[in-house]
Write a structure and sequence with these properties.
The protein has 166 residues and is an alpha+beta fold. The chain has one domain. Helix content is 56%, strand content 19%. Strands 1-2-3-4 form a 4-stranded antiparallel beta sheet, covered by helices on one side. The radius of gyration is 32 Å and the shape is elongated. It starts with a helix and ends with a strand.
């Protein structure tokens, strides 16, 4: 009789065990689903931060671009022809006319570059302020653009300021 009752209790255990296994599988699937959602959110945040960093890098490259163009046209830059401050700041959605002089052509090309890299909108602007110091020219290039891709905690208005001697 003891052998017969051992079989019954063993069979009962197998029956109960199969139901618990299904619940364990469902819980494991739930935990994995939550983990995958977290990884997807992390990836999305990473992409937005990388896009923001790329935009700042493009603004830095654009500022070096106009400074190199001004170095190639040093006498005109020294005279202040490239200066764009206040109301004359370059707006990427309304580039200046390229006709007339090398400075106009370079400012037009720079404006187009800003529009392509940072967005051809009114909030993308480029300012240049140069002052002559003895035989050199001290220039500050200020580029402002909308960086709404910065994500949580970032500013939608970014400003890159580059100062250099020509």
């Amino acid at each position: 009789m003891s052998q017969h009752s051992a079989n019954r209790s063993g069979a009962g255990r197998r029956f109960l065990q199969s139901g618990v296994g299904l619940i364990e599988v469902l819980i494991a699937v739930l935990v994995l689903s939550i983990a995958f959602l977290g990884i997807a959110a992390l990836q999305a945040m990473s992409m937005s931060t990388n896009n923001s960093a790329m935009a700042r890098s493009m603004a830095t490259i654009a500022s070096y671009s106009i400074l190199d163009a001004m170095r190639a046209d040093f006498d005109v830059a020294k005279a202040g022809t490239y200066n764009r401050t206040g109301a004359s700041v370059i707006k990427a959605d309304a580039c200046p006319d390229a006709a007339g002089s090398l400075a106009n052509a370079q400012l037009n090309q720079w404006c187009t570059q800003l529009g392509q890299a940072l967005g051809a909108v009114a909030t993308t602007t480029g300012g240049i302020a140069c002052t002559t110091v003895v035989d050199s020219v001290d220039c500050t290039v200020t580029i402002t653009f909308d960086d709404s891709r910065a994500g949580v905690g970032g500013s939608s208005v970014q400003q890159v300021v580059t100062r250099a001697m020509l």
